[in-house]
């Protein structure tokens, strides 16, 4: 390759199999079964690559467009963790190329019709915590392979139509099934219809009122506000306490916490919490 004929090309593959190709060349390139389109939706900054196991550091940025990377898809998390590969390629002979980056998309930020995504190298998983954490509360995520609680049926999830949207983060319902107050706190909500379909959020507060009225407050407003009448699915939450695991979910056999571990005060000042031995 010569310096005057080098272009960069990058591929992004979502978890659902959708593949997009981009290049900073002024014409499309095709190799490895992928067509790389010029100036189409995304560009990448210069890579900062280190030796050893250090995580490569770079960013990708671009415009949110209807035919490439849409705002709705970004907000719905469809690009989270997408596979990324980048090549330097001789655009006069695409067989002459070298792979300069392989990894995934990390945190995605959006502003004014554009996005910026962190690129994470293949060594990024090595930064994840390993091992067991000794804590009074459960370390499992509700419904995962450690928790083993299957969240199906009307006990742990329901669907309802939105009757009111306040401040972007509070959803009101007028014909809600009978659940106790706070049943859905720390749970999650998924929009099933309308322009916000596919978006999800974590639930902060769940307030029940007489007559089947209910208000659910989200920790953060949905990126695209749902409309009145849109359907949502709401899943119960867990505060990870042993009592909740036993009484609410009947799942204490799979509890992944240590409810009888001594408190920090007991360790630091045993005379205030009881005797040792």
From TrEMBL:
<dbReference type="Pfam" id="PF09931">
    <property type="entry name" value="Phage_phiJL001_Gp84_N"/>
</dbReference>
<dbReference type="Pfam" id="PF09356">
    <property type="entry name" value="Phage_BR0599"/>
</dbReference>
<protein>
    <submittedName>
        <fullName>DUF2163 domain-containing protein</fullName>
    </submittedName>
</protein>
<feature type="domain" description="Bacteriophage phiJL001 Gp84 C-terminal">
    <location>
        <begin position="182"/>
        <end position="265"/>
    </location>
</feature>
<dbReference type="InterPro" id="IPR018964">
    <property type="entry name" value="Phage_phiJL001_Gp84_C"/>
</dbReference>
<dbReference type="InterPro" id="IPR011928">
    <property type="entry name" value="Phage_phiJL001_Gp84"/>
</dbReference>
């Amino acid at each position: 390759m010569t310096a005057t004929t080098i272009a960069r090309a990058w591929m992004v593959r979502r978890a659902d199999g959708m593949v997009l190709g981009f290049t900073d060349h002024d014409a499309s390139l095709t190799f490895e079964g992928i067509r790389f389109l010029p100036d189409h939706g995304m560009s990448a900054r210069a890579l900062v690559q280190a030796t050893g196991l250090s995580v490569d550091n770079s960013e990708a940025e671009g415009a949110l467009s209807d035919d490439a990377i849409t705002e709705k898809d970004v907000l719905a998390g469809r690009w989270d963790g997408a596979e990324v590969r980048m090549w330097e390629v001789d655009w006069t002979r695409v067989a002459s190329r070298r792979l300069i980056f392989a990894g995934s998309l990390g945190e995605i930020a959006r502003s004014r019709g554009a996005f910026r995504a962190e690129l994470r190298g293949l060594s990024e998983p090595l930064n994840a915590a390993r091992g067991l954490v000794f804590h009074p509360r459960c370390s499992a995520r509700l419904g995962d392979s450690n928790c083993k609680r299957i969240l199906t049926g009307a006990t742990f999830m329901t669907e309802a139509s939105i009757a009111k949207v306040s401040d972007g983060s509070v959803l009101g319902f007028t014909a809600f099934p009978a659940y106790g107050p706070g049943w859905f706190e720390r749970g999650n909500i998924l929009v099933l219809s309308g322009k916000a379909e596919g978006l999800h959020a974590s639930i902060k507060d769940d307030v029940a009122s007489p007559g089947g009225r209910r208000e659910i407050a989200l920790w953060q407003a949905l990126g695209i506000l749902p409309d009145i009448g849109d359907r949502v699915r709401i899943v119960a939450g867990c505060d990870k306490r042993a009592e909740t695991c036993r009484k609410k979910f009947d799942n204490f056999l799979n509890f992944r916490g240590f409810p009888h571990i001594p408190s920090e005060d007991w360790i630091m000042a045993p005379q205030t919490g009881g005797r040792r031995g």
